[in-house]
Amino acid sequence: MVQMLKERWKGFSEKHPTLAQFLIFFIVSNGVTVLQMILMPAFRNIFGMTNLVDTNFQVWHIGTNLNGNPYFIFDYAAGTLANGGGGGLAYFLAVEITMGIAQIINFFLQRNVTFKSNTSVAKAAFWYVAAYIVISIGAAALQGLYKAPIYNLLMNVWNMGSAGETIADVLTMIINSAISFWVFFPIFKVIFKQESTN
Questions:
Q1: Domain ranges across the chain
Q2: Which helix (H) or strand (E) holds 73?
Q3: Which residues contact 120 (CB under 8 A, 6 or more apart)?
Q4: What pLDDT, in 10s, does the model give residues 139-186?
């Protein structure tokens, strides 16, 4: 049975290489997203026990929100989310460390499993990191549009308190991952090439 499935998959992937890569990319990306959903609340709780929560981290002011407040690319105001803050430097570190771990795992799985690349690891890593930085900044800028309303809805409007905060963590991570998912596949097709070994 397993051998038959392997043969069918091999035949399918030979006939439809890009579709096969996309399906594997989809599975790997979702696995990495699940890992992020586990790590993010864990890191948030760990850093939440430090005074980093009270350290303001609002960087790259680029205008104003609809309500007139300043709009920052990275907007993590001091104070806990439960008390109206943005989680401060603690929340920023939880997000970025989670994303960093996930992207390192994602890099090797996508390179070796999905695209079976045989090009230079160093060159691919350089372009991957460059793409990750650009995409992270773009995703952070977009987060300003949906992060506060999601947390407000779950924590305050629906009065879910800390459970709402955890659910909002998961939802914002899913949105972030979805943005990365659709942007990264075409980039990976370029970064993770297979070169002829003849």
A1: 21-191
A2: strand 70-76
A3: none
A4: 878 877 888 888 889 988 999 888 888 898 888 878 877 887 788 888
**66, 72, 73, 78 alpha-carbon torsion, rounded to 10°:** -120
Residue with tokens 């890191």: 43
Residues whose CB falls within 8 Å of the CB of residue 192, separated by 6 or more in sequence, listed in order: 110, 111, 114, 115, 117, 119, 124
Residue 64 has φ and ψ, to the nearest 5°, of -130, 155
What is the distance of C-alpha 97 from the center of its chain? 11
Total length of the chain: 198
d(CA 100, CA 78): 23
* pTM summary value: 0.80
Check if the beta carbon of residue 147 is closer than 8 Å to that of residue 98: no
Question: Which residues, listed in sequence order, are joined to residue 92 by a DSSP beta bridge?
Answer: none
Q: What amino acid occupies position 95?
A: V
Q: At what angle do helices 161-191 and 17-48 cross, to 10 degrees?
A: 140
